[in-house]
Amino acid sequence: MRTPLPPLPGLLAYEATARLGSIAAAADELGLSASAVSQRIRVLETQLGIALFERQARSIRLTPMGQAYLPTVRGAFDDLSAGTTGLFGPAGRGRLTVRVQVSYAMTWLMPRLPDFHDDYPHIDLRVVTAIWANEVPPHEVDLEIRHGNGRWAGFTADLLHEDQAVVVGSPAHLEAYGPLTGPADLEQRPRVHVIGYDDLWQRLFPHTPPPSRGAEATITLDTTVAATQFAASGLHCALVPERFARAAVRDGRLVVLHDRLVPLRQAHYLLQREGKGEGGAHMSPEGRTFVQWLIRQDIEDPPLQPGS
Fold first, then answer.
1. pLDDT tens digits, 243-273
2. Of 66, 93, 185, 305, which sits most exposed with the smallest number of CB within 10 A?
3. Per-residue pLDDT tens digits for 129-155
4. How far apart are CA 98 and CA 126, in angstroms?
């Protein structure tokens, strides 16, 4: 059974008086009267069974036991302050928790977050992914970004990004196979298939024949971030959301292989739990700032334009 703790009001009064050197100064800091601070210290001394201060007519000073106890109390307050700030952020700052899917985070959002931090240093942003779905309680998530059809039970969903898919490969792939011109050409080169985007190759080339015996085999991966990384590092081409390939194309790790974009049947939506307000009507100021910043990213960094 835990030993009863000393009263917190008395500890606060004791630490402030010791640090500031007077009951009057401690009273100003704590927003109390001098008599209230003095009373709290006396209650603490009674519980501890020792005198913490020597009181004189015009001054107060720590007793030897009061001096010895002070590092323990200050250390406890410092640990509590550091733990609170580390978990919840500094007092008076805006906090925002956003849940996103892994591919969206790794290929598109993360490279841009330093700019968000530079523009809005007063907002402590926490980004979590589905990997930590069970670690972050739903009520702690302010906003969520999902890719889908816009219908999720228990959420209001507002369209955030409409997306298209683009064929990409490494510069080495382009050198080895050249641009992608048609379904017959496609049959002769290695490809990456992404689970969840089963129809994209067929929609790019509607009359693609079934793979022949001599066709290159595909490799199947479960995320677009894995597909873009794999394509950038070898000779396989991939058909992935343009948004997720944009940075890799612009920095030269990937090249666009075909001059057509394929509209995706799904899009990225901004989700709030029902009861928080449709259309962001009751969104926090930090949430509105973040959403407006996201929208600006598409204006300032437009989609790739193959063939232009």
1. 999 989 999 999 999 999 999 989 999 999 8
2. 305
3. 866 555 667 778 899 999 999 999 888
4. 6
Predicted model pTM: 0.65
Residue 61's nearest CA partner among 75, 73, 51, 72 is 51
- Enter the tokens of residue 178: 């050249």
Question: What is the pLDDT at residue 278?
Answer: 44
The Cα–Cα gap between 308 and 261 comes to: 12
Residues 6+ apart with CB under 8 A from 52: 14, 18, 41, 44, 45, 62, 63, 65, 66, 69
pLDDT at 143: 93
Contact 166, 256 (CB under 8 A): yes
Half-sphere exposure of 233 (CA within 13 A, CB side): 6
